């Protein structure tokens, strides 16, 4: 793996392509992390792979990144948390996955709890239906 990209099967991936995998739910991203890609890799705006996967509604990828050690509470450059992004997008499966992996409903500005209140929603309990 080089500083500016990752190699998978001889194909070089540029950083933006790696972030696109998170945005589009590419399961190969987990293989790249398993092969040494930093699990908390972030773009120029401070959005980690987990943040992008969560914001774009990919619950299985979000959980897979969390299981590989991604920081579920890492804030981006705008002080937003992955959980608040998932609440904003009304992605219940992602919210549940983040809570099950220890996401803090009070992290960020606005917090996930405040975001839920803004939209008249309630946060589920971790492991709840």
TrEMBL record:
UniProt keywords, alphabetically: ANK repeat, Repeat
ANK repeats by residue range: 45-77, 78-110
Entry keyword Transcription: no
Protein name: Ankyrin repeat protein
Coiled-coil regions listed in the entry: none
Pfam families, alphabetized: Ank_2
Gene3D superfamilies reported in the protein's UniProt record: Ankyrin repeat-containing domain
Superkingdom of origin organism: Bacteria
């Amino acid at each position: 793996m080089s500083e500016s990209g990752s190699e998978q099967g001889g194909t070089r991936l540029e950083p933006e392509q790696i972030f696109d995998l998170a945005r589009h739910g590419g399961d190969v991203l987990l293989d790249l992390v398993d092969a040494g890609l930093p699990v908390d890799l972030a773009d120029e705006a401070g959005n980690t792979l987990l943040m992008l996967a969560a914001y774009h509604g990919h619950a299985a990828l979000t959980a897979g990144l969390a299981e590989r050690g991604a920081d579920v509470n890492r804030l981006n450059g705008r002080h937003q948390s992955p959980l608040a992004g998932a609440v904003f997008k009304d992605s219940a499966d992602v919210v549940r996955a983040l809570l099950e992996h220890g996401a803090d409903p009070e992290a960020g500005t606005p917090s996930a709890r405040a975001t839920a209140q803004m939209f008249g929603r309630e946060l589920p309990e971790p492991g709840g239906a």
